[in-house]
Structures are given as C-alpha cells and as structure tokens.
Amino acid sequence: MNEKKKNTRLTTASGRPIYEYEDSQTAGPRGPVLLQDYILHEKLAHFNRERIPERVVHAKGSGAYGTFTVTNDITKYTKANLFSEIGKETRIFLRFSTVGGEKGSADAERDPRGFALRFYTEEGNWDLVGNNTPVFFIKDPKKFPDFIHTQKRDPYTNCKSATMVWDFWSLNPESLHQVMILMSDRGTPASYRHMHGFGSHTFSFINAENERFYVKFHFKTLQGIKNFTDEEATRMKGIDPDHAQRDLVESIDRGDFPKWTMKVQIMPEAEAATYKWNPFDLTKVWSQKDYPLIDVGVIELNENPDNFFAHVEQAAFAPAHVVNGISYSPDKMLHGRLLSYPDAQRYRLGANYEQIPVNRCPYMVANYQRDGQMRTDGNGGGKPNYFPNSFDDVYTDEKFKQPAEDLGHHVVADWYDRNAAGENDHYTQPGDLFRLMTQEEKQNTVSNIIGSMKGISGEKRDLIVNRQLCHFFRADISLGIAVAQGLGVDISQHATGNVHAN
C-alpha cells in the first residue's frame, strides 16, 4: 500500500534532527529505560504541562476511602508489611476516572476507566495506579503523548475525531488488544462499582530472602460485572452525565459498601526470560492457566470524602510510590510513568503535593526536602537540610536495600524496537479475546467498532479503514469480515493485505 512521501524532517524542540522518536533507549531488548534518553524526557515533560489546571488524562474522577483486609498468606512472595498477617487492615483511598475526557465529560463515555489505589502503610504510601483493563494501547512510553493527543480534540475543529483515533490505532497494531476490549461492552461500564480493576503493569514482589517474583494485580468486583450497551451508554450521557459519581456516593451513604477481592499472578524471576510472551509488555496478559490467580485480600470502600476537591481532586497518585517488598520490573511503560506521574503532580499541585492530607503518609516521614510553594509542615525548622550531617539522628536502614536485578549478559544501551522479532505478535491475544466472547458480545463489539469507524472522514479515510481492517483480519477472519461488511468494504483485498505500521 503506497503512502505519500514525507518531506519534513522530525526534530526536537531545539531543532536537533532525531530518529529515535518512538522507541526508548534501553539496557538490552528487555532491560530498563535509560535516564539518558532525553527525547523521552522532553516528550513526557512537555506533555505533562500542556493543560492546566485539570489533569491531562483522568481529569474526571470519583473517589472514596476504605480498608484493605488480608485474607490469605502471601508472605513467601513478599515482605511488604501490609501483607504480614491474615486479618491485617490497611486504610486505602481509591480514585476511579475516565481517561480521555475533560472534567465536564460524561461518565458513560466509551473509554478505559482509571483504577488508582493508595494504601497508607506503616512503611509509606503504596500507589497502585491501574485501569479497569489488564492491557493498554501502547508498550513504549515515548508514544504516550501522541496516543493521548488522538483521544483529545482535533487542533483544527476542536472536536473529538474518529479519524485521528483510528489513524493512530491502524498505524500501531500493538493497540489491537486494548481496542478489542474498548470496543466491547466492557468499554462502557454501568458504574464504577460493577467493574474489575487491574494494576495492568508487571511489578515485582521481594520476599524476606530477597528473592524476586514478578506479579500482576487483579481486583475482582464482588458486585458483579454490569456494562452498558452502546445505546444504553448514549442514553445515560443525556440523562445523567455524572451517573457513576452519583452511584458511588449514594451507595456508600446508604451503607452498601462496594467491595473487590485482590488477587495476584506470580511468576518466578527465572521464568520471565523463557515465557511465550514478553512478560513486561503492557499490551499482553499472562495466561491464567500458566499463572493462576492467587487470593490475597478484600478492599472495601466505606467512607465518602467530606469535600470532593480537598480529597478527590487533589489526590495525586504515582506508581513510583512503592514500599519495601514491592518494586518495579523491566516494563517500559511503567518506567515512563515512574517519571511522568510525579512530574505531572508537581506541576499540577506543586513540589510539596505529598503534604496535602489525601497524599500525606500518616506515619513518620524524614527527608531533606525543603522550601517550594505551599510548604505546610514547618519546613524542617532549624534542622539541617543536607545529608549526611553531624547534628541529627536520621540514618539509612540497610534492611530496606533493594536487591539487584538480573538483566542478563552482554547488556547494551540501544533503542528498543517494539516490533522486533519476538515482540511483534499483536494479533494472537486480541483474536483469542474475540473468540472467547459470546455471540451477543461479538455482535456488540463489531457494532461498536463499525459505529466508531464510520466517523473516519477526509481524504485519508480509505487508507485508514483499509489499514485497520488488515489488523482485524489478522486477529480473526470472522471479525475482519464482519467489520468490513458493516463498513461496505470489498473484503477480497484484505484477508492477506499488507499493513504499514510505524
């Protein structure tokens, strides 16, 4: 498929021509993202400052306080204090949100839902910042600003654009797994209470022997799954654009406390190198046949904030905030969020955002951060503002030292190719997902895809439609045929068509 030759050379904001605009520099193909990748920093830091004062993403949200109670012993996997004994309770705050809409958007939009959970533990705040889906649209953080731009407003019309959305998805086949979820009825949950939550990323557990296990977090709603059809969601947007917020507040006020069970999948560190999928690829799931769900505990929301702005609007989550016994993984999207989330919060709320009550650790905090806007805690008084010093008794505790991560032999810094051999199967899992659906779920998903793609317009319409149809055919022939027929496209050219993807 021929496309117009491009004549404008891509540069940084300072005018430096660049090639590695989409792929992050890493320590080896599956190693961590390197701090020296300035283009990644420039894209994410600029992206965080594009809109004020609301969040760039997840702008509209709802939240409540509650408790997490341990029901099963997982201490052989992690030494995290909040899991130390069965029956232990930890205070939590959970914020739900839509992703792409502004603060005034409707709760019933077709969109992933944020599922951001904070545990106020004795050893610090742990923020598990995920979604109601186990995967995401992209696997490299350099692509995040570009992706979110397509979910926002067209710079010319200032309207949402199906053309932008499907153009990006068709050029990035790794998005197909998440697109299939979004276009099913799971893309329009009936309420926040009636959907699952996921940590989405791969994290790691570290036990008392400093053994590392990779882990994925699942939160299964005990209210049961309830989704809107596309017609029901459209109707609800007109009836009550705040229906999910209203439902959450009213359910807690009447004592009908929402609950979820926390479960984990555990992968021994050594198995990560040989698993059939890259276990750190955010567009993939781990098979539950290979790594079954393990029960951990129950979360319950039982306290509405007394002031929405003070608590929900000022809540500032960051997946960088982990605690002893819980750590990161070589998940590249996670690494991007470790940088961008705290940076976004410092910009939105100020350098001292962690002193705001909803964000403050309720236990002891000792550091040498000083000054900055909105300092509220006495600013350390006359104590030293440097470490080490000869005047105070603050020390570093060696028991909290992180164990080394094995990155394998011959690790080199390189730009990760997310479509390299072994990383480019973007079709098996989306196809499996479609084949697992009931006939009604398949029909609704196909109908939602067709309805959305009919909004693609302009001179590139046929190019974008044809490119995306190739992805659907590669995932599942019957899916491709159904979408093509719904769009009135001749299917003979697509079953074996070529796809151009950046």
Automatic annotation (TrEMBL):
PANTHER family: CATALASE. The active site is at H58, N131. Pfam families: Catalase, Catalase-rel. This is catalase. GO terms for molecular function: catalase activity; heme binding; metal ion binding. Heme binds at Y341. The keyword Hydrolase does not apply. InterPro entries: Catalase, Catalase_3, Catalase_AS, Catalase_clade1/3, Catalase_core, Catalase_immune_responsive, Catalase_sf. Residues 11-395 form the Catalase core domain. The lineage of its organism: Bacteria, Pseudomonadati, Bacteroidota, Cytophagia, Cytophagales. It catalyses: 2 H2O2 = O2 + 2 H2O. SUPFAM superfamilies: Heme-dependent catalase-like.
